[in-house]
Specification:
Length: 213
């Protein structure tokens, strides 16, 4: 069985559990995904299944991309590889749908977090800034010292400073599947997932599910 699929974040809402509790959920449109290539141990040195998501017009892809997808019979925008436990059960052109998941199981959801642009140390790292008194009128949101001139006489690698914030790969683990709607290709998971609405997501079987069961 393949370990994951691609999808897009639709948004958040809430549903009621069988006992009447309000459960916050994220709605994800998962699949349908098409198998575009099967990686084998003899040919590639490892086993995996490459899948494609979201059909596009030919003009959106380069000639090499169109040639690669020709055997699958479908032109798709995104390609990703997922591990599978049964490599022989997958063939190029197979369509994988959201019914791969079931209610109650745990999943890991990965995506790019919201981009915040260039941010200072107060917003990016939670610095409190300099003193507000004694003439320090321009130190309100300054980072302070980034390294002594004598020792260490350099700026350490990884020093927390101003820079680009967000737009990084984030994975939220062990989210519970609340509902699966195969007809609409929708998956409802409990809690929040990374990224903005319409952001691309990878939904995988949880790697730590047994530890939390």
């Amino acid at each position: 069985m393949i370990q994951g699929l691609l999808g897009r974040k639709i948004g958040m809402t809430q549903v009621f559990s069988p006992v009447g509790e309000v459960v916050p959920v994220t709605v994800i449109r998962v699949g349908p995904c098409v198998v575009t290539q099967v990686r084998t141990l003899d040919h590639d040195g490892y086993e995996a299944v490459q899948i494609g998501f979201e059909e596009v017009a030919p003009r959106k892809l380069t000639k090499p991309q169109q040639g690669h997808l020709k055997s699958a019979g479908l032109l798709v925008r995104y390609l990703r590889e997922f591990v599978t436990s049964q490599i022989d059960s997958h063939q190029v052109g197979d369509v994988l749908r959201v019914d791969l998941f079931e209610v109650g199981q745990r999943v890991d959801v990965s995506g790019a977090s919201k981009g915040r642009g260039f941010a200072g140390v107060v917003k990016r790292h939670g610095f409190r800034g300099g003193p507000r008194t004694h003439g320090q009128s321009d130190r309100l949101r300054a980072p302070g010292s980034i390294g002594g001139g004598t020792a260490p006489s350099k700026v350490w690698k990884g020093q927390r400073m101003a820079g680009r914030m967000g737009n990084r790969r984030v994975t939220v683990q062990n989210l519970e599947v609340v509902e699966v709607l195969p007809e609409q290709h929708l998956l409802l998971v409990c809690g929040a997932v990374p990224g903005p609405i319409k952001g691309l997501l990878e939904v995988r079987h949880a790697v730590k599910a047994k530890a939390t069961a």
